[in-house]
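Problem 12. The chain below contains 405 residues. Write out its predicted structure in token notation.
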Amino acid sequence: MLNDTKIKQLKAREKMYRVADHSGLCLEIRVNGSKHWRFRYRFLGKASMLSLGEYPMITLAAARQKVIEQKLLLDQNIDPVKFKTEEKEKAKLNIESSFREIALEWYSEKKERRSESFRSTVEKAFEKDLFPAFGSKDIKQVTPHDILRMQKDTIKRVVKQTNHGTGESTAIRNRQLVHSIFNYAIANLRCENNPAVSLGQTVERPPKETARPLTKDEMERFHTAMQNSRSTEMVKNAIYLLMYSMMRSIEVCRLKWEWVDFENKLITIPPATKEQMNKGERNIKMNRIHLIPISDQIFKILSNQKIQSNDEYVFCSVFNKSKIMNKTTINRALGSMGFEFTAHDCRATASTILHEAGYSSEWIEMQLAHVDKNAVRGTYNHAQNLEERRKMMQDWADIVDEWME
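Solution.
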């Protein structure tokens, strides 16, 4: 058996060693000289060991008392190690943590693997809506009523701004963020309930505006408006490429020179890499290879862009050539010209006119990079009818040019 005199005489060795007391209690002496109490026991036939604290903060008498407590647990068929873990988890729930603390902790684990757009959206939601509503409140004290009030305040804030909609979509997105943060808090033993779980239908999402084809008047004014626009030549080229190519605005903004084959007059957009996917980035909406035949008009635009852009991206930021063009630039430029149609409406226009011209719906959908319901066919048939689509894309570009006549 140990006593205080014997314990004080125990010195560090080259390797850690243990000295027994009795009833499973022993003292572990580490190479740095520190001394730690251990309780060795068997539970359901399996040997285990439990840490009881460091000597002399835990005295010999206190350590022996702890052994008695552990044996009482064993008598009740309770594993002391598991009991200690559960007690720690309960203690965590008793620690006050503000919603802001947990939200920032959640965000720090997410942001490196998500897109810049996601990060910007979350940070704005934190600053303008979530933290002002209940950021300083203990997360366990946040109620469904708090979240409902936050949604209403979000809608009021957005309505006060011009050209930002009626706010329902923002309020719904904020509630979804809160829901995710509470799920994280529950998983990490910071709270036990998610007050957002029952609020799914409390705000009705506004009807989604579907893309529509350009009117005859918009087609007739398009080229004149482009010529008279004060937008930079790079922005005009981006709009023309979007119109001629049937690409999405984000696909135009992310277009890289390495995907452009001038010799074979073909743009090949590859699927996103694993690193891009981890950041929430995709080259096209449906993450598959996409081929875009280069018409004469597109060839001219790309040749002109070689002079203006950086070495990586076809279209770069107007203010910083090291960055890509912002995805909102095209729609803002169209708005400044007095148009009420968007980049997505240009795609709807091409689809409508080409269908009316008798082109295959399958070719048109393939050129719009819409997902094929047959996943295998959609993956491997990206080059199907390429020559026919090449003619279709040239005809479409010629139709756009005819608007100015």
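Discussion. Confidence is low (pLDDT under 50) at residues 375-380. Students who got a different answer should revisit the alignment rule from Section 12.3.
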